[in-house]
Write a structure and sequence with these properties.
The chain has about 675 residues and is mainly alpha-helical. The chain contains 33 helices and 4 strands. It has a two-stranded antiparallel ribbon with strand order 1-2.
């Protein structure tokens, strides 16, 4: 029987803190899935009833079976331009695909140099390839150009049509863009189908044994400042820590060898993925007795990553790893017995034993694999209730494949109450780990090399696919670098208005996905009229959104707007409440909150006094004073003269103070003329 997970295992309300597949920084709250009683009732009672026809329950839910190169999983990717390898299939220059890559290469070069003429040529060639040759990948890039307004008038309708036909032609990045567009418009029936297909591609690229390390996109800024600490750790082979690790590995340190292999295999710390180097370091580490390398060697041979696929060798390495106490290796062994790879025949009983060994030792992959067996009735009696229990345990431990299964449960209504918005959100988290996420790695690499224009183009492309961090990074580059961002507009380099409008749009999208800093900036844009028409009511809406994520600055701003009746009702009590909340959230706000509360007290007790008029005039006076200080005082020559003048005054003051002290000391030793002479 299709039944809901037992309430006793979930209690009244179960919080699944989803392991952030692309973890957001403190600027954006982690995604939290809440399962309540409503999600667990109305179970299907017919065990033989088929699942939703739109579901993919018959696919290989263990993952890793149909491993394909990233170029096949992400056709039309720019990978061959950023990661050319000896295995890349060459394409004749006069072929449609060759023309497409030549145009994209020209577009990327134009973004680096800021050459508007070259960008116009690239855009024209891409449009020709899309319209005359009908290439889906050229259509995808053309949709990007229309969506961003790059050498074309910004047109969302044309962007959508090009992405629609590109997706129909098999372009995965256009599928991501469409799914994100549908989800923003709450069109979950359409969004969930696309995200389900994309998530399946991502899942089939995961490892069969242990979980892949999460290669998270780096947020290049922390609020208004550059995130220097995160960037320092992403400089690849130029990083000092990496060079020290490499030196230790070359000197024979087994742990360092293992880490070197890990970094190259997954492309961690800003390194380019290199399976050949990874294999070399893992083999060296094994020779030194490092057991974790055995498990990764099993993965390499099972996947044929940089070597010829060999399931027999894979099983041998995984068996050796399991004997060294690496319980996650049992998952790989169980997988091989489920599929019948590298063994005489399939053996579900032995597979279940291996999965149970992994699960008994608190390995999330073991719980996930057991869930799949019970869900599909592989070697056991089909029981969705037990499967659901295993998936929940795995999800709580951060197993990404479990999120995929929970998404399918919400999608189909099997095991959990059908909930398309929740299914869409979960599928999206998994899909964002697909091979198209390499855009983030290339963008970061470009940024670290000082190629801000190329980084902005790549982050913009990724932003279109719905990645919040990319939206935030692209917007920050526009605000931080201005003209140096090499932002391309409709007819050349972006005007100030185009940059403000594009940054506003990107920050808005990021704020919709939980970025409180973005919501705060959107509120500021509407409040001050930066890049848009001044609108206090919309500013208040954005601040309320940021406030819902416990942002102290947003709370202070809402208090100020209530105090002055701007976009919100004039209400001194609510103003005080917001000021107090801002101080509770951030003790550093003590000074501004104290001043604000003083202003409230004056306004309440001396409503029509001259002091209130002075307070109300401060917002108008302050910019003028600030401008005078910046343009007059802080001008280099004036600042130098002022500094010397202040130093002179200080010296004169100290000299005068010293002279007075000396006079006072001398007076203290003189005879007092008012005293009577001593008696004779």
């Amino acid at each position: 029987m299709y039944t809901r997970c037992h309430l006793s295992t979930l209690r009244l309300s179960l919080f699944l803190l989803l392991f952030s597949l692309f973890p957001l920084s403190l600027l954006s709250r982690p995604f939290v899935l809440v399962l309540s009683q409503d999600d667990l009732k109305d179970a299907q009672t017919d065990d033989s009833s088929p699942p939703d026809p739109d579901s993919s329950w018959d696919d290989d839910d263990f993952g890793g079976t149909h491993v394909k190169p990233d170029d096949e999983l992400d056709p039309g990717s720019w990978r061959r331009l950023f990661e050319p390898t000896s295995t890349t299939v060459s394409t004749p220059d006069d072929s449609p695909l060759g023309s497409y890559y030549a145009a994209v290469d020209k577009m990327i070069s134009a973004s680096t140099s800021g050459d508007a003429r070259l960008m116009e040529e690239a855009a024209a060639e891409i449009e020709t390839a899309a319209n005359t040759e009908g290439g889906p990948h050229a259509r995808s890039v053309l949709g990007f150009l229309y969506g961003m307004g790059i050498m074309r008038e910004r047109n969302k309708a044309k962007a959508f049509l090009n992405h629609y036909f590109a997706a129909k032609g098999g372009n995965a990045q256009s599928m991501m863009a469409l799914a994100y567009t549908y989800s923003r418009q709450d069109m979950y029936e359409k969004a969930v189908k696309l995200y389900a297909e994309l998530a399946e591609i991502a899942v089939n690229s995961f490892l069969i044994s242990k979980d892949s390390p999460v290669i998270e996109p780096i947020r290049i800024h922390s609020g208004a400042e550059e995130n220097k600490e995160a960037l320092k750790k992403s400089r690849g082979e130029d990083d000092e820590d990496f060079q020290i690790l490499e030196y230790q590995a070359q000197k024979g340190n087994a742990v360092a060898m293992y880490k070197m292999g890990l970094f190259y295999y997954f492309g961690l710390r800003g390194l380019r993925r290199d399976h050949a180097k990874a294999l070399m370091w893992f083999l060296k580490a094994v020779d030194k007795g490092e057991p974790r390398s055995m498990e990764l060697l099993g993965e390499i041979y099972a996947r044929g990553a940089g070597v010829e696929r060999n399931y027999t060798k894979a099983l041998e390495w995984l068996s050796l790893a399991s004997k060294q106490g690496l319980y996650s290796a049992y998952n790989g062994m169980g997988y091989l017995y489920v599929k019948g790879y590298g063994v005489e025949k399939k053996n579900y009983t032995k597979a279940k034993e291996y999965f149970e060994k992994a699960a008994d030792n608190e390995d999330a992959g073991g719980h996930y694999n057991l869930g799949v067996m019970y869900l599909k009735g592989i070697g056991v009696k089909k029981d969705v209730k037990i499967a659901c229990k295993y998936f929940i345990v795995a999800a709580n431990a951060g197993q990404p494949k479990a999120f995929y299964q929970l998404a399918k449960m919400f999608h189909t209504g099997v095991g959990l109450k059908k909930n398309l918005p929740m299914a869409t959100a979960l599928y999206k988290l998994v899909a964002e780990r697909g091979p198209w996420s390499a855009l983030s790695r290339w963008a970061l690499e470009s940024y670290l090399k000082g190629d801000v224009g190329k980084a902005f183009l790549l982050y913009s492309r990724m932003a279109e696919l719905g990645y919040e961090i990319a939206q935030s990074n692209a917007a920050w580059i526009l605000d931080k670098y201005g003209e140096r961002s090499m932002c391309m507009g409709e007819s050349g380099l972006c005007s100030d208005a185009e940059r403000h409008q594009r940054a506003h749009s990107l920050w808005w999208q990021a704020s919709e996905q939980g970025n409180e800093h973005a919501a705060l900036l959107i509120g500021d844009a509407y409040y001050y009229g930066r890049g848009t028409v001044r609108d206090y009511e919309r500013a208040a809406e954005a601040y309320i959104h940021a406030k819902s994520q416990s942002n102290a600055q947003a709370m202070f701003n809402l208090g100020y707007m209530h105090e002055h009746g701007q976009g919100l009702p004039f209400d001194l009590h609510l103003a005080k409440r917001y000021y107090d909340q801002a101080l509770e959230i951030d003790p550093a706000a003590k000074l501004p909150v104290t001043l604000a509360l003083t202003s409230l007290w004056i306004r309440k007790n001396y409503a029509e006094s001259y002091l209130v008029h002075i307070i109300d005039s401060l917002p108008e006076v302050y910019p003028r004073v600030e401008e005078w200080v910046e343009n007059v005082i802080m001008e280099e020559g004036n600042a130098t003269i002022l500094t010397l003048f202040v130093c002179l005054l200080t010296v004169l003051y100290l000299r005068e103070r010293q002279r007075r002290n000396a006079v006072a000391d001398a007076g203290a030793h003189l005879p007092n003329e008012h005293l009577a002479p001593p008696a004779l």
